[in-house]
Amino acid sequence: MAEFFEMPQASPTMTEGVLVSWKIKEGDSIAPQDVIAEVETDKAVADIEVFDARVLLKILVPAGESVPTGMPIAILGATKDEDISELLAEYEERKKAGPASPSEESKPEPSPVVERPAAHKQEAPAPVQAAPPAPPLEGGIQEVTWMGEELMEGIMEVPDFHVVTAHGKVRASPLARKLAKDRGVDLYNIKGSGPHGRIVKADVLQSRGQAPALRTPRSDQKIQLGNMRKTIASRLKESYLDSPAFYLTANFDCNHYVAFRNRLKALHPEAKVSYNDLLIACVAQALADVPEVNASWGEDHILQRGSVDIGIAVALDGGLITPVLRSADQKGVREIAKEVKDLVGRARNLKLGAEEYTNSSFTISNLGMMQIESFTAIINPPNSAILAVGALQEEPCVVAGHLTTGWRMRVTMTCDHRVIDGALGARFLQALRNYIEAPGMLAI
Amino acid sequence: MAHTHDLIVIGSGPGGYVAALQASKAGLNVACVEKGKLGGVCLNIGCIPSKALLKSAEYANTARHLDDYGIQVGEVKVDFEKVIARSRKVSATSEKGVKYLFKKGKIDLHVGTARLVDANTVAVTGEKDTEISAPHIIVATGARPKWFPGMEPDGKRILTYKEAIVRTEQPKSVVILGAGAIGLEFAYFYNAMGSDVTLVEGQDRLAPLEDAEISKQLGKALRKQGITIKTGHFCKGVEATKKGTKTKIAPAGTEDIEVLEAEVTMLALGVRANIENIGLEEVGVKTEAGFIVTNDTQQTSVPNIYAIGDVAGAPCLAHKASADAHVAVHSILGHTSRPVDPNLVPSGIFTVPQVASVGKTQEELDASSTPYEVGRFNFAANGKNRGTGHTEGFVKVLIDPEYEEILGAHIIGHDATELLSELVLAMSAELDGTSFLEAIHSHPISGEAVMEAVAEALGVGVHA
Fold this sequence. Notes:
The complex is a heterodimer. Chain A is α+β, with helices and mostly antiparallel strands. Chain A has nine helices and 19 strands.
């Protein structure tokens, strides 16, 4: 079946690419891993490969033109004589619509391509490994996540290659998977030696050899930066240096919060509402109550956002992504739980559309499950604040003059003073306290 | 200097012809030098014609037992000349097939003997003497029967497979030295044809490279068919007489010589690589223990000269040669490919019952103290095989208990060589036992025995 081949997002920050040259002609057959075109991204000139055997039916974008990521650049088919008239018509429409208002079909998705930085134009030594298919991530790079231990594993290391399929899966033999799981080796950190980078037993065994146990003396290692790491470095440095940030810490009494969630769990086990889902619901309502926090700095103005769009930091192996829950204040806890589960699931498989991980209005970062009591996070532009959530824990506390124990949780909000003053930030945390300490308020 | 070709392949057996065709498909201008018939030993005097002979043998034996199935055919007679003639015809057809493919692939065929002049040049002596050159050369000269002093074949009474496979005269009696695949297959063939067969093997069991349990079962089956088997006996010399041959054998480590008299003696003692007189030493191609030394991409010590198949080392099997060919051509084309892993090269013995295996034997695993679980399933317990009467033999798999890696698979019985394929695939693709069992096996087929053996090794079998 004929289909569009879209401008791949060959680097995390790439929004458009210049088609430097076509490597094949219309009518040419393409074998898996053939380079079909050269594309200049914001970082390098990349070879664009195709994974399946196809025929190039039509070149839509001539060499030299710049194209937004996700826009079709060619039509590929299985055989030479396929009818592409419908696709051509659709292409004209999509061109008219433009990248600003992408139609449902044209949302940029991670493309089934592997970026291979070409040796020329590349300042640093080009990594020999294939890079991931365009990890979708906003500038929202926090050093934290709220997703759980399995996701936390990846945050510790920075692999400079992932070989994943178009669906975000790692190619590996069943035996390699078992072996890796058993030995605690992350498949994302292994270069596969099999066809199309398939990881086989020997690769897992070898990777073990390459990463000696901590006790054996190790020499310094120079780790080449992957694109994701480069983005993390530049965006967070920019945010850190640009925003005059201050920090507000609050300690919430969570006895009702825990009871409420346990009740919810008992009454609606199918909804699988987590503490995080409940937290998002509380934050959303607090943002609706104090909309001044739900805002962006615009140099000559402050943009107070009409919609409460909460970014949720999710760790990926070797990086982060912040899927965005739109209009969170309009949604019930169960709806939030359902939607977040879907977003996070797809985030982990690199299957989010661009509009699903960009342009949040506030971000939550949670390291509670890692037993971090409290911490500070760096603001995720274009947000003006980020909430760093610590562990929910039972601890000694004084209530009405009596020493007792109770559930407590510390949060720290990082505020951009250009937008949020101390009293405003405190007002927001007060609003948040109202919901967390009395979750029944959510129903009001 | 301009070369006459992009690639020269010396030899057109299942290594050489596959390499030539694959390179030509990739657009290379390929020359192939062959001194004999296209297709080498395999197509002309090996794998293929022997399968024709063995089918005649199997039919003869089947016909003798058709009464079991309620079919009366009367006395079974063998027309030996016709049996051989059919086999020759099969070879001729196969050779034509390769010829056609060569023509289609525009392979520049040079009939004659090749000799490396330098790292890029090959002198051909034959129909017309010529010199050809190319940036890459693949040596695929194969192997020939091996023997030891005191048992030189004369081609009339003392034979190797080369003579035996075309011999139109049926020997009344035959002594076969060596119980590897070739010796076993000829023993089965001659016995089924009605010859009196004695099979001698120096090791203490038949098919010594196979799993011991398989050897034992095979010995039992062949003895039952009437073959005299003398394992643990070494040959002390063969001599041709007017009427036939005298083969001296003695138990290992002794001089208690026994003389076996027969019409012919056949030597099936393995093969020797064809490394002589092709200029290897002159251009500096390193050899070791009689084989050309190669690396993972089949490159020799001279980087643009590759060696594939028997000449590049054991196992000397046609499919290993073809696999080598793929690796070498890929390397020449600048692609990478998985090196041929000898552990994953399957083997087959086409007697009845057939023997097929891949990976490690139980003895090898014991020797290396590798943990394993054994799964066995008898064909007598398989519904389909009971129906067809092929109840002899079993499937045996050896599986790592920790990760369920399939370490070895050994099958003896009807169609064993075909049944093995899914296990070869499983091992090659690194399917663990549980993943293997997730594949639904059709019913009723002999392959269910394979599935059951794997299940038994994992401790989840229901039929054993």
